[in-house]
Specification:
- The protein is an alpha/beta fold.
- Helices cover 25% and strands 26% of the residues.
- The mean pLDDT is 93.
- The protein binds flavin-adenine dinucleotide (FAD).
- The site of flavin-adenine dinucleotide has 29 residues, from helix 5, helix 6, strand 13 and helix 7.
């Protein structure tokens, strides 16, 4: 019996996927696009010219599945791992179980809703397509594979029609959100992307970074890289200033590491106040500029 695992070079989540693959019965084969270090029995290395193309990776995976006839295919629970496996599932017309934390024969436990819910599910297919929930499995050593073989996939123009053309680094405005000592974060209460100007001004004065809630990134007011929370960045600054944020569990999951939390909200009943060390009940559009003005005055500027 064979288990096939899709691995990416220098990727911790891929090593976690190998751990899941190893817990299943069978010899563990890996497929990587380009050379990778992975503790599998046999690593098939496919060379695909150019940048990442999801359909091309999936085509290679499907062709190797047809060659090896594995009982399960495991992918890392990364955006890319899930994307390639979903493409493969569509090509094979098979179900796929994403974010799996446990496998018992046909039954799996998997994370739903960003990890807030565990689902017991049954995979109705001979070939199980599973992605490993991030950080649900320990990382094995990034040791060399037992054997390396070259795999040459048969690709069409359609397989490479959609590919990454440019990678743009996150704009952090100087201080990275994850490392900032002060984070000035805004929620729906900020009202618009322009409304963040007063938060940016305060953050700059405090040499901090601007963060936000998911409502804000969903509305397109700020980039996803600014999102704090369960599905965003986890921050642990000395001071977290939450402006117009209600305090949903998923947001608090990202800022509960803050040493002190100052909440500014015009609703005295807002949940955020139960997490706050300091509370200001009022309109953030008045309070934030007032704090900035006081700071400037105190600094003599
Ligand atoms: C699986 C899943 C993952 C999620 N992940 C995340 C995540 O990573 N991060 C995240 O943030 N959310 C996440 N969410 C969404 C989360 O549940 C909330 O919907 C979201 O955090 C709410 O954002 P908010 O506080 O900005 O908006 P709201 O809940 O609408 O709160 C807005 C607040 O602003 C206040 N307000 C309005 N106007 C003013 C004003 N002028 N002055 C002062 N206060 C004002 C209001 O009183 C209110 O309390 C997730 C949800 C799910 C289901």
């Amino acid at each position: 019996m064979t288990v096939l695992v899709f691995v990416e070079p220098d990727d911790e989540l891929s090593l976690q996927a190998v751990t899941l693959a190893r817990s299943l019965d069978g010899e563990v084969h890996g497929l990587s696009i380009g050379p990778a270090q992975a503790p599998v029995d046999v690593l098939h290395v496919a060379e695909i010219e150019g940048t990442y193309a999801p359909a091309a990776s999936a085509a290679a995976l499907v062709q190797l599945i047809e060659q090896l006839a594995p009982t399960a295919v495991v992918a890392p629970g990364s955006d890319r791992g899930n994307e390639v496996l979903a493409h493969a599932a569509a090509r094979l017309d098979l179900p796929m179980a994403a974010n799996v934390t446990d496998v018992r024969g046909d039954d799996v436990t998997r994370q739903r809703w960003g990890g807030t819910l565990l689902e017991e599910a049954r995979v109705h297919a001979e070939l199980k397509l599973l992605s490993a929930a991030p950080f649900a499995f320990p990382v094995g050593s990034a040791s060399a594979p037992g054997r390396v073989e070259t795999f040459v996939p048969d690709l069409t123009g359609a397989d490479t029609a959609v590919r990454v053309v440019e990678t743009v680094g996150a704009s952090t405005g100087g201080v990275a959100l994850a490392d900032a000592k002060v984070v000035v974060s805004g929620g729906r209460g900020v009202g618009s992307s322009e409304g963040f100007a007063i938060l940016e001004e305060l953050a700059a004065l405090l040499e901090g970074a601007v963060g936000c809630s998911r409502v804000v990134t969903s509305a397109g007011w700020r980039p996803h890289t600014d999102q704090v929370g369960q599905t965003g960045t986890k921050v642990s600054p000395d001071l977290y200033i939450a402006c117009g944020i209600s305090g949903a569990t998923q947001h608090i999951a990202g800022c509960k590491g803050a040493k002190k939390l100052l909440a500014i909200n015009d609703d005295p009943e807002a949940t955020i106040f139960s997490h706050a060390d300091y509370a200001v009940i009022g309109n953030l559009h008045e309070i934030v500029p007032a704090i900035t003005a006081e700071l400037r005055k105190a600094r003599g500027g």
